[in-house]
Amino acid sequence: MKADTRTSSRKTMPNIWGEGVLFAFSGLDGETDTQSQFVATAGTDGYDLLIHTPTRRLLKLRPAEIGQVLIATGDVLLADTAGGEIMMTYADWHTLIGRLPEDRPASLEFVDDGDAHKAELIVRMEPCSDGSTLTITEDCTNGDVIVLLLAADERTWSLAFGKHAAEATNRAISAIRLDWQQVMEDRLSIYNKLPELSDPARARLLKKCLSVMKVNTLSAEGSIDHLWSTPDRVPHRAMWLWDSVFHSFAMNRIDPDSAWLFLRSVLETQRSDGMIPHMSKVDGTASPITQPPILAWGVWENYRYTQHRADLAYALPRLERYMTWILANRDSNRNGLLEWMIEGNPLCRSGESGMDNSPRFDEAMLLDAVDFSSYAAADMTYMSLIAEELGDKERSLRWSRQSAAMSVTIQRQLWDEEDGFYYDLAMDGSRSKVMAVSGFMPMLLENMPAARTGRLLALLHDPQYFGTPLPVPSTAVSESAFCTDMWRGPVWMSTNYLVITGLRKQGKEEEANKLAERTITAVQGWYERYGVIFEYFDAEDKMPPPACSRKGPPLKRYDLRKKIATIRDFHWSAALIACLLLDVQTPMKRTAYIRNSTL
C-alpha cells in the first residue's frame, strides 16, 4: 500500500532512519524549550524514539516490516509499509503527532538508565470515553509528564510533554485533531529554498545537511534573546562561539537574517571586560574561557548576503572590545603572538582552542599558538573591512596595521624552514614540533609567501604526514600520538573547511576543489551507511565514526548517558558540507576569506 500523502512524491529527500538521528522541533518553526529536554533521537529498533528527558522515555514504533523510508529529517519521518504509512512530525515543541500501520499500536515506557530507580516514576493507562487510550508517564522527581494518546482506530496518535498530567493531556488531545499532512508540509517547506542539485545522491545529502541545521536551531529563551544555534541538541544543548560562526556560513545561503541572529546571540554574551565565552546557556551561565576568534569573519560574511550596515555598526564595537581583551589577556610574554588557555584536565588540555585533546597540549604548557594568532590576525583584517565599510578610515587603518603586524610575526617566528611547516612556540623560544592541522592556518593570511604554500602542499600530499586517504588529519600520521581519538588524528569539517578556504585564498583553486570533493564523498558515504552526519571521521577512512575513540575508547553499545561517543547529526559538519555542496552550484557565493585590497 503506497502512502497517500502530498510529500510521498518528493524527490531526493533524506530517506535513511539510523540510530541517533536527531528528532526535535526547530526554532525556525516557532518556540523551543531547551530546559524541558524534550528532544528525541532515533532508537535501535524499528522507528523507536528515545526521548532525552532527565529520566528517558522510549516511544516504541515497530511495524511488522520496516518498509521503505520516504522521508527522514529532523522533524519528519514518513515510511511506506505493507500495513500502511508510518508518519510522525512535530506539531509544536512539546507535541508530536503521527500515524501507524494497521494492528501495530505504539507504546510508551521509561528507560532503565541504571539510576532510574533514584526517581519516583509512575506509569498508568487510562481509557477515554471516545475509545482512545492514554498512557501517562510521570517523573515526580524531575517534575515532568509525557503522555501518549492513541486514537480508537489505533493508527492515529499524539505524544505530548507537560509539567503536569493535565497540561500534557490537553496538548495531546488538541494535537491529535490536526491535519497531519498539512503539519508535515509546513515542516518541510524550508527545503524549497535549496537549489536542486543534478546528482540525486548529492541533492539528498544537501537536504540532510539542512535537516541537521534546522533541528539544531533554537528560539529565544531565557538569557538568549534571539534565534541561536547549538552544536547538537543532545548531548551539548548550549551555544558555542566558533561553532555558531560556522553554522552561520551555511544559514547565510538559506536565511541570512537568521544567520545574523546566530552571530548576534553570541555577541550578546560578551562580558563587561570584553571577553566572549566559548559556551553559554539559556540559564545565563557561561564558561570562563573563550574560543577561536572568527566572529568578525562571520559578521562580514553575513553582510555580503544581507547588506545590512546597521548590523556592522552593532557588531564592530563589540568585536573591538573582544579583540582588545584577547590581546591584553592571551599574550602573556607580550611578543605579539597569542596563547590558548591551558587546563588541568588531561582529556581536554585546551578546550579554548577548540582542539580539546590535541597532542599539541600534552605537555600542559603555554604556547604561542599558530592557529590562535592566525585567526586573530585574519579577524582584525575583517574588523578593518567593517570599519572601512562604515566610513571610519581611522579605525580601519588601526586594525589593518595590527593585523599586518601579527601576520609578520607569525611568518618570522612560527615558520620552520627545515620542516617546511608552521609550529607553535614554547615560552622559552623553542619550537613545539607537534605537526597538527593548526600549521596550515597561516594560509588564511594576506602575506603568505608562495614558496611556503608550496611546501605546505607537499606535506598535505605526503602520506607520511597529512596525505591520508581522507585528508586533512588533525594530527600528522608521523606523530606517535596519531589515533582515532578526536583531535589526535581524525578529520574535522571545521579544519578541512579552513584549509580549503586557505588554499583558495592562496590561489590554489584546483587543490581546494579536490579536497572539497574528497571531503564531501567521505561524509556522504558514512551518511548513506548510518543516516547521520558525524562529528569527525577516521583519516584512514576505514574505521566507522562510531568506532572512533572520543576521549577514550567507545562503548560497544551507543549510549550517551554512559559515555559520549562520536556525536551524530553534528551541526557544523552538516553546515560546512552544505557550504561545499553549494559552492559547486554557485561558486560566486563562496564564503570569502579575502580582503578587497592588500594590507
From TrEMBL:
**Which family would the database say this protein is a member of?**
Belongs to the glycosyl hydrolase 63 family.
Q: Does the keyword Hydrolase apply?
A: yes
List the Pfam families hit by this protein, alphabetically: MGH1-like_GH
- Provide one Gene Ontology biological process annotation: protein N-linked glycosylation
PANTHER family hit by this protein: MANNOSYL-OLIGOSACCHARIDE GLUCOSIDASE (PTHR10412)
Name the keywords, alphabetized.
Glycosidase, Hydrolase
What is the protein name for this chain?
Mannosylglycerate hydrolase MGH1-like glycoside hydrolase domain-containing protein
Q: Taking every annotated instance into account, which residue ranges of this chain make up the domain Mannosylglycerate hydrolase MGH1-like glycoside hydrolase?
A: 239-541
Domain of life, per lineage = Bacteria
Q: Which GO terms describe its molecular function?
A: Glc3Man9GlcNAc2 oligosaccharide glucosidase activity
